[in-house]
Amino acid sequence: MAVTASHGHPLRIHTKYHWLTFMLAGFRPKASINGHEMPLAWGDNVIPAPPGRHEITVHVPYLWKFGKATTTVDNTAGAPSVHYAAPVWTWQRGAIGAGPQKHPGLTAAYVVYGAILALALLCCIGTSILGGGGGSS
User: Fold this and answer.
1) 34: burial class by Cβ within 10 Å (0-12, 13-18, 19+)?
2) Using one digit for the tens of pLDDT, what is the confidence trace for 26-70?
């Protein structure tokens, strides 16, 4: 089944990444539709496709296939909209589905980064309280 046929309804794929993973802006996501791989852009993508069921796999080509996620859609009744969200951590799968998706690993990222920030703040406060400012002897 050729993905480039213009009959039928197109596939709409919306891709996004979280601002904590800003480095992903330098890597374009890729989609594999029924085994045919093609580059995508971050944001909205419209892909012509013949009517029928299509297996869509999206990933980001980083050092490996980062954030791989798969779904199946049917465009015989209309143009389906697929939403892909890249994960925050490199070892997680992405999220893909019919509606807007949450970024996998976002809660854990907030907890880890919050703990690091709190530890740094406690070190600064502790240094100030204990007089470790390096004053004259």
Assistant:
1) middle
2) 999 999 999 999 999 999 999 999 999 999 999 999 888 889 999
